[in-house]
Amino acid sequence: MDYTAKYITDDIKLSCYEDKFFKSDISFDQHMLIWFISGETKIVQAEGTYIFKAGDIFLIPRNQLATIINYPKDGLPHKTVVMHLSETRLRDFYSGMNINPDASLAQKIRHYSKHPLLESCLSSLVPYFEMSDIPETIASLKITEAISILRAIDASVDNVLANFEEPGKIDLVNYMEKNFMFNMPMEKFGYLTGRSLTTFKRDFKKAFNSTPQRWLTQKRLELAHYQFVEKKMKPVDVCYEVGFENLSHFSFAFKSFFGYTPTQLLEQTTRS
Q1: Of 87, 215, 237, 250, which is most buried by a Cβ count within 10 Å?
Q2: Exposure on the CB side of residue 148, measured as CA atoms within 13 A
Q3: What is the pTM of this model?
């Protein structure tokens, strides 16, 4: 993977992928505001799939599981300006304000398609990536400007940005049934469900009568089978969207579980 990144500060970077694609299962610790210069991104979450292209701007809330696949497009690399909206900076911004965010609202990706105010703010950062010794105050002002614009154009964004609660203990069965396709460390699943690793494994065994890894593998393979039969998806697309990192490992696991390869299944469903 040919990846480069240029930083103004730790919170603002220009990210560039030159390869065919880059895939990652992630849960961001901070909110991320992203502006696309070129390329394409597919973001798969439990509630749906998003496609973002050049000119798009979107906000990814923290602690939300997602599979992110970045592609070059039209002969251009996948290039984005990424701004982290950290808890420390947001607490400072909201200090003194009487804001009571509704934590019950779904923390979904927010899309601001080519909004002129946000686009102007983020595009103005590009020249700084070619400079050195940018004063911290300049970067801080640009982040404050971006937060102020988000609040001006999205009346409900305070429910995301001003919500500083950590994940509490939630229903394990419901959460795992919705998020099993994301290839996260068990510690992260524990954190996002409000549990220590030990408590997560204990509660998981009680709920599913299985180890997390065995249950996750079975659920991912069953989802893959459904996507082959019902959606006629390609093995490479299914592999990455159901939580596997390697196509050959996915094909081996699929055949071991079902007794036939993804290609054999697709050929069978095509004939029938």
Answers
A1: 250
A2: 9
A3: 0.82
